[in-house]
Amino acid sequence: MKHYIFMGALAACMLGSCGGHEGHDHEAEGEAKEAHAAHADEIVLTPEKAQAAGVQVEEVQPAAFRSVIPTSGQVLAAQGDEATVVAAVSGVVNFTRSLIEGTQVSAGMALLTVSSQHIQEGDPVKRARIAYETAKSEYERAAKLVDKQIVSQKDFNQLKENYENARIAYEALSPSKDGKGVAVKSPIGGYVKSCLVKEGDYVTVGQPLLTVTQTRRLQLKAEVSERYYAGLKSIVSANFTTTYDDKVYRLDDLKGRLLSYGKSSGDASYYIPVTFEFDNRGDVISGSFVEVYLLSEERQGVISLPVSAITEEQGLNFVYLQVDAECYKKQEVKLGMNDGCRVEVLSGLKGGEKVVTVGAMHVKLAAAGNTIPGHTHNH
Q1: Residue 58's pLDDT is what?
Q2: Which segments constitute the CzcB-like C-terminal circularly permuted SH3-like domain (predicted)?
């Protein structure tokens, strides 16, 4: 009997011992899961790997940010920096040098000739020269006789007028060096923007032959929707981006200035023009279409980030926060105005947080294969 009582007591002790050990294991496992869940959204990227990937971080601080009107526009040559060369006479075009778009020319350089030698009206240069020489001869003869009163003063004045008119007409034709036609010269130095005729084409007086541009100053013409009209008077500058490079051009860096903005929309358009002028540093193509960010009054206390800091997933915007030296965290943000360089953050960030501004895509890719066994850090 005592033997059975002893065996029962021993079994009870063993069961109690197993139950306590199992409870301890479940408790430890629960703590591990909670710890893993706390860090499951964190991304490990060592400082060495971050530096190799070019990752850069910026501390968020509220600052001034200009209001922005986004629109589109076009880059045009500034007035006075572009000239259209026209034909002074009717005739056949003959190029004196190879002229293609981009060819550099200097002021006064002969670009082509227009010849009328084999046309019914005859060569206007020869006719102008004959008229000039005849008028000159009559004027010089009369000048010797007017003092002797053989020629009246009235007749002398008329002959002088005829001579001056003939001289001006002849000199305006600028005969070519070989005497075969009229030399067409560039009025300004610059580059050939467009050539409108071909070798052997027949042209008439005043017909455009080619366009020469200096491209030292350019104009930015933005087309603004009528709904933004009330804000046009506060516009002070602009940024713009082109379709052929990834740069953001800031008019403040290009000695830009606002020329004017329209007071009404056009007859065939619902848009109001806003025109700026700026220095061309050689990177902007005249005639190109651009995305424009019109900048107006400053607002204080705005949190903003470089555009490169923003990543997008399924229509939502995210940034990556640096938690410590080797740990990052993805954070959803809501965005406001964008000036092409920086974008306003309406919610999701607060001052003092550190955000990845360069290399955010590398951090995003690092998140895909991240595991954090044994990872510890101090927040």
Answers
A1: 92
A2: 304-364
